[in-house]
Amino acid sequence: MPFVNKVKPSETVESVVYKIGDKVSSNLEKDLQSIGLQSFPQKITILAFKEEQVLQVYAHVQESKLLLKEFPFTATSGQLGPKLKEGDKQIPEGVYAIEYLNPNSHYYLSMKVDYPNAFDKSKTIYEDYSEMGGDIFIHGKSATVGCIPIGDKAIEELFVLVQAALPQGVEVIISPRDFRNNDEWPVIDFIDWEEELYAIIEDRLKAF
After folding, report:
1. What is the C-alpha to C-alpha distance for residues 132 and 92, in angstroms, rounded to an integer?
2. What does the pLDDT look like over 8-18, one tens digit per residue?
3. DSSP letter at 32?
4. C-alpha distances in angstroms, 187 versus 192, 197, 199?
5. Is 134 in a helix, a strand, or coil?
6. Using one digit for the tens of pLDDT, what is the confidence trace for 84-111?
């Protein structure tokens, strides 16, 4: 999805947060208070579930990880199973991190997911990693060919939350389904390593 990353040199992360920060603070006030916070958490983890088409934000509060917010996908593409190549329209599956925030996205606001990660690269048939695809973002609007769109209001809230937590690193776990509620792993016909991948994801989800 290369065009997601084209920029219009008009905004910075700081200018966006300045413009929408008060509105987002107001929107999230009750959510924050419900888990005992008065300000944005300094550490968060993002969980995304393809089958349920939902994105969850967990705040790390002392020794606990508490559900702060849930956002529905506004569109989806592909099927269950990991992303393998450029143009397959698959949303990746695995344990990732947010690389950076894009304040000038064609999809309003976006944040880059670091696909392909080391695990993805260890399983690819391609010697040139660029053939695996890339430019995977969480973004606004309601269209996608392999990214995760959550709409403009939701991406504003997530953008500000990630901006506050990014210095501590923001983990993104993308799973075919929520294994905490349904522990049946999908069988993916075109690979033979899905059990290894899903064991990693399921184990990581146990913390939440």
Report:
1. 11
2. 568 999 999 99
3. H
4. 9, 11, 13
5. coil
6. 999 999 999 999 999 999 999 999 999 9
Given this model, what pLDDT does residue 6 score?
52
Q: Coil, strand or helix: which one is 60? A: strand
Helix 13-34 to helix 152-165 angle (10° resolution) is 90
Domains identified in the chain and CATH numbers: 2-205 (2.40.440.10)
What's the confidence (pLDDT) of residue 167? 97
Question: In the chain, at which residue ranges do the beta strands (DSSP E only) sit?
Answer: 44-49, 54-61, 64-72, 94-105, 108-113, 136-139, 148-149, 171-175
Measure Cα distances from 101 to 30, 94, 141 in Å. 25, 20, 16
Low-confidence ranges of the chain (pLDDT < 70): 1-9
Distances (CA, A) of 67 to 34, 44, 46, 148, 183: 10, 10, 10, 19, 20
Q: Are 12 and 55 in contact (CB under 8 A)?
A: no
